[in-house]
């Protein structure tokens, strides 16, 4: 959430075609975290965000980046263009487009770790992955693709939105079924939980510390207040039927580092508001004019009582 009215999001894509990295030495290129921060600071719309971010591509942390520009959103009015720009990165390659028409015609945009652009899909090796491993790597047939398409029409408010983002009904949802024993995978859900797969599972059923570790949602009116609702920790399922995640009882309690984390992740959603503060930090003897300007974001908990500073 940026003061320029841009909402920036990403999901990570795999690069199965490791030949893309051969001979690639990112000398003079810039780490993804720095490029995204610079783009957030300099961009004034979705296109300029991608134009800035693609420069000095390091080929690392190859994601699908979605930039929603609230400057082009008017409630009740059909957006024509410039509202949603999507880009995808590979080593030595970056593709981005205005996909507002897809959002409008489809009614939603979903991102689930599979490339949208055909060229990125094929270059990164997803086409071969589908051939070898089946539709779990398909953009249109992956479990989360079909679940989003089926369930997004049921959203009526922020509560149902969060419920969808935290949904996991893998033992009963046909889209979570796989050619394995038992015939389903905890990965086949919007909020995956591979820790619930059999410890000796293979393929889609592999057991490891992998899945959705949080959810963050906002809407137009909340965004205008720099407000969002978030919850941390693996999901407890669509109907709260899944066990609460507990490090000490997990199959990888000793092998997966989790220093300073709570043992039990049993949290409920909270709403947060960011306050943009402008002013003077005060005197600084090392500066030319004796003072330093500062602009900072201050995070506060927007509860029923007075706002409580988080940090």
TrEMBL record:
Annotated EC: 3.1.1.-
Superkingdom as given in the UniProt entry: Eukaryota
GO molecular function terms noted in the UniProt entry: phospholipase activity
Pfam name, any one: Phospholip_B
Keywords noted in UniProt: Glycoprotein, Hydrolase, Lipid degradation, Lipid metabolism, Signal
InterPro entries associated with the record: PLipase_B-like
GO BP annotations, alphabetical order: phospholipid catabolic process
Gene3D superfamilies hit by this protein: 3.60.60.30
GO cellular component, one term: extracellular region
Family, similarity comment: Belongs to the phospholipase B-like family.
Function: Putative phospholipase.
Protein known as: Phospholipase B-like
Organism: Laodelphax striatellus
Lineage: Eukaryota, Metazoa, Ecdysozoa, Arthropoda, Hexapoda
């Amino acid at each position: 959430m940026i003061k320029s009215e841009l909402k920036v999001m990403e999901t990570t894509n795999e690069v199965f075609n490791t030949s893309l990295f051969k001979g690639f030495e990112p000398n003079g290129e810039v780490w993804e975290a720095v490029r995204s921060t610079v783009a957030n600071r300099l961009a004034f719309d979705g296109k300029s965000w991608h134009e800035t971010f693609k420069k000095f591509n390091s080929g690392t942390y190859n994601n699908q980046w979605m930039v929603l520009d609230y400057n082009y959103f008017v409630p009740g009015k059909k957006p024509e263009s410039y509202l949603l720009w999507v880009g995808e990165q590979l080593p030595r390659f970056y593709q981005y487009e205005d996909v507002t028409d897809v959002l409008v015609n489809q009614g939603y945009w979903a991102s689930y770790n599979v490339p949208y652009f055909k060229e990125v899909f094929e270059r990164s090796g997803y086409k071969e992955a589908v051939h070898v491993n089946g539709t779990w790597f398909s953009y249109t047939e992956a479990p989360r693709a079909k679940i989003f398409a089926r369930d997004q029409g049921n959203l009526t408010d922020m509560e149902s939105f969060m419920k969808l983002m935290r949904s996991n009904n893998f033992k009963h949802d046909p889209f979570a079924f796989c050619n394995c024993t038992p015939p389903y995978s905890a990965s086949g859900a919007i909020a995956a939980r591979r820790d619930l797969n059999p410890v000796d599972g293979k393929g889609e059923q592999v057991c490891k510390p992998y899945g959705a570790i949080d959810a963050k949602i906002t809407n137009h009116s909340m965004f205008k207040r720099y407000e969002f609702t978030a919850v941390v920790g693996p999901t407890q399922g669509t109907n709260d039927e899944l066990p609460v995640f507990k490090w000490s009882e997990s199959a990888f309690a000793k092998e997966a580092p989790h220093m300073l984390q709570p043992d039990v992740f049993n949290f409920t959603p909270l709403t947060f508001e960011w306050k943009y503060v402008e002013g003077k930090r005060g005197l600084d003897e090392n500066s030319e004019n004796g003072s330093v300007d500062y602009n900072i974001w201050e995070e506060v908990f927007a509860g029923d009582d007075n706002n409580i500073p988080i940090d």
